[in-house]
Each structure stands twice: as structure tokens, then as C-alpha cells.
């Protein structure tokens, strides 16, 4: 499936710290994704994976550290601008139930990018075609399966022509038989040259699609490397223990 990647850029977070009160959720996290590559972040629940994504797109401001897109710090930019450059897909798709599928996708390009309604709809149909759901353009999200809704959410993010895509447990809420289609779409995006950071419990995806795997625990990166290094030769006891629980 061809996908449109306007220009992929690298993303770097260095020395990222964030505390919620006394809870030090990120304790100096370094992460780097080369342009067009996929980094998968794995780790136990509560280790700070979602918070890391939210800091990287400045939904939370880090207490310390820097964020660079394409090698340039973005901390002084308008956060809204950064969020337009980074597409985000969550566990829960958050589609507007009273709008059609095409309207859900056209909304951002129309409201945030100033495309006319007609052009925004044409773009929505194009994106829907890429995720194999053009025939659902005028349906309500509630009439689609969870997997289809998640593909719409991905199309919605892609319609904003992001330079980087984040996925936070995008398949965790799906019935098992619907997971594959969404993972296949994510794999297509990765091979199409999108820069991606993927938080997932799908170890098969982490192993086969990602260029680099990051293992987090207690707000810190414990190990990072190529999938085969981390999965076949984990160096730390913490990663060995984590893998023995999830594999
Ligand atoms: P993960 O995604 O790895 O499961 P999270 O990033 O969601 O972990 O959470 C890491 C820690 O940060 C948890 O202790 C969680 O309670 C805390 N946390 C996350 N978001 C907030 C928030 N908005 N306010 C306070 N604490 C939070
Ligand atoms: Mg999470």
C-alpha cells in the first residue's frame, strides 16, 4: 500500500525529565529516531512510555532536557506548530461520533491548515483510499469495526501531513482479530519512510518492523539497540525479566 510521506525528519529527545509532584516519571530519557526510521518503546505499565510521547510533542513541558526535530530544538517554538508536525494515534481513537468518517479526517486540514471544505474532503478521500476505507467515507464511526476506526484515526493523522508519527498502544483496545490489519498499516507506513515512535506490547511488531527498540523502566531507558540485540541478547536482568513475562 503506498503512503504519502512528505518529508521525514529525525527526532531527538535528550536528558528529558518530568515529575508530577514528587513522582519522577521521566528521569533523564535520551531517545533518537533517524529520519524515516521506526523506534519501538517497550516496558512495563507505568514506566513512563506514554508520558515520554506526550513530552516529545509538548503536551507536557519537560522540566529539563531538549527536543529536536530535524536537528533543531523546538522548545522555543509554538507548541501547536510542533503538534501539527507530529501525528498521534492513541489506544482510543477519539473520533467524533456524530460526524462522518470523511468529516472526521477533513476537520483538521480545514480548520488548522485552511484548506477549503471541498479540498479537505478530497484529501480525506485520498487518505481513506490509502488505508483501504474509501467506501466508508460517509459512514459514522460507530458503524465501523474497532480496527477500521483505528485505520480512520491513522488516516486522520496522516491527512495533516505529519513529519513524524507517534503510536501509543494503537492496537491495545482492539479485538485480537482486528489487530493484524492495523499493525500491517503501521508496517506499511514504516517501510514507506515515515519517522515513527511506536509504544506497543506487540513484540512481533517490535522485532520485525522497528529499526531500534528502547526498553524503559521506572522513567529511564534501561537498554536500547537493534531488535535482535534486545530480544535475543538482553543485557540487564530487568529486560530479561520483562521479556520472560511478555514473550
Ligand atoms: P506507561 O505509558 O509506561 O504505562 P505512563 O507514562 O502512563 O506510563 O505513566 C508513568 C507514571 O506517570 C505513572 O506513575 C502515572 O501515574 C504517572 N502519570 C502519568 N500521567 C500523569 C498525569 N497527567 N498526572 C500525574 N501523574 C501522571
Ligand atoms: Mg501508556
TrEMBL record:
Keywords: Amino-acid transport, ATP-binding, Cell membrane, Membrane, Nucleotide-binding, Transport
GO CC, any one term: plasma membrane
Chief location: membrane
Protein origin, superkingdom: Bacteria
Residue ranges of every copy of the ABC transporter domain listed in the record: 11-243
SMART domains hit by this protein: AAA
Membrane topology: Peripheral membrane protein
UniProt keyword Membrane present: yes
GO molecular function: ABC-type amino acid transporter activity; ATP binding; ATP hydrolysis activity
Subcellular location: Cell membrane
InterPro entries listed in its UniProt record: AAA+_ATPase, ABC_ATPase_HisP-typ, ABC_transporter-like_ATP-bd, ABC_transporter-like_CS, MetN_ABC_transporter-like, P-loop_NTPase
Family under the similarity heading: Belongs to the ABC transporter superfamily.
Name of the featured protein: ABC transporter ATP-binding protein
Species whose genome carries this gene: Rhodococcus ruber BKS 20-38
